[in-house]
Amino acid sequence: MKLHEIIEANETPGLSIEIQEIKKYKKSLLTYYKHHNDQLILMVTDIYNACQYGKIVSANEFNEAVEEHINTAGMTEGDKECERELIRFDSILLANL
C-alpha cells in the first residue's frame, strides 16, 4: 500500500488497514495527522496469526471510533461488549508503534 491509499482507507468507515503497512509510513502518518492537537491512537481492530489490522484515530475520538467499528460489523450485544474490551486492550499510541 502507498501512503495515500493508507490515508484513504483510514478515512473509510468499517475499513481497517494491515498494521505492517501503517508501520512502514509511521513518521509520515504522524506528520500528516499532526493537525490533531491530541495523541493519535492505533486502534487495533482485528488480530490473526499472520497479521493485525487497525485504524489511526484521535484520542478524543477513540470511543466513537470503537463504536463505529463495532456497529458496522453487525454483532450481537454480547459480542459487541467483548469486542469493545479487546479493542481497548490491544490499541496503543501510534508514536509507540
Roughly what is the average pLDDT, rounded to an integer? Answer: 92
Helix content, binned percent: 40-55%
Largest sheet: 4 strands, antiparallel
Taken as a percent bin, the fraction of beta residues is: 15-25%
What general form does the structure show?
globular
Number of domains: 1
What count of helical segments does DSSP give?
5
Distance between the termini: 18 Å
- Spatial strand arrangement across the major sheet: 1-3-2-4
The stretches of 5 or more residues where confidence is low (pLDDT under 50) are none
Structural class: alpha+beta
Total beta strand runs: 4
Rg over C-alpha atoms, rounded to the nearest angstrom: 13 Å
| N-to-C SSE string, H for helix and E for strand | HEHHEEHHE
